[in-house]
Amino acid sequence: MPELPEVHGLCMYLDTQLRGAVLNEVRINSFSALKTADPPYSVLEGRSVQGVQRIGKFVCVDVDGLFFVFHLAKAGWVRYTEHPSSAGLRMGKSNISARLLLHRPADEAHIGVDLTEAGTKKSLAIYVVRDPQDVPGIATLGPEPLSPDFDLGALAAILGSSSQQIKGLLRSQGVIAGIGNAYSDEILHAAKISPFASAKSLDQATVVRLYEAMQEILVGAVNAAAGKPSSELKDTKRSNFRVHARTGLPCPVCGDIVREVSFADTSLQYCATCQTNGKILADRRTSRFLK
Fold it and tell me: pTM, whole model, 2 decimals?
């Protein structure tokens, strides 16, 4: 799933390419992805793109004061081209959920932006709204972890009021915006914290480590994504992982094997030596720890 750093990099790239372009046509190929009806998406046509920004994991395209907002969910992505196909889209017959066709007057470029989604479970969501806060998922977002207001005290207050497992808390968009499965794995590994630890059980020194790891991992990933075209962002994300999606490979810090806990529709990766004092975590079907 694209998370804060990739979505941030994607928005920077799209802002550079689309700012000032006229949105000539919006084609919706998966009406299950379109979550709003008022205003209709057709009113975007003929308007100019004023900018593209990230809010949490949402991409918000400002089209002369109206907003084309999308969330890429687990398997969605953006395909950008300056040689768009003129062929029509067959409803429900491809992995393309929507296509935007634009003209950039500055250099007479004709641009195509496809929102794609792999797999059979479709979760990509598209909204056309007058205000990004009209999108339910945006209205309920927690604070941005890289905002100036999100300091050590803000994180400590969040952790101190929750008995939730820290892995789940970091992924909860209503608590902290933008972090998902991959970067929560990476942050907890860098902070040397078990993913099953209770948030409110963390002592002051551990909270400091968590805050510093969050800043280090996210800032590093944002910097790595900056300036990359959309076609390179996924590979950039994967290339910097230490534990996530590296089950069975050696931990780059201690050399132990990276281990995995599987759930119904997701999994987490961790290093027992770095994070759990050598204890091997069990999945939910057995006990909390393997003895």
Answer: 0.93
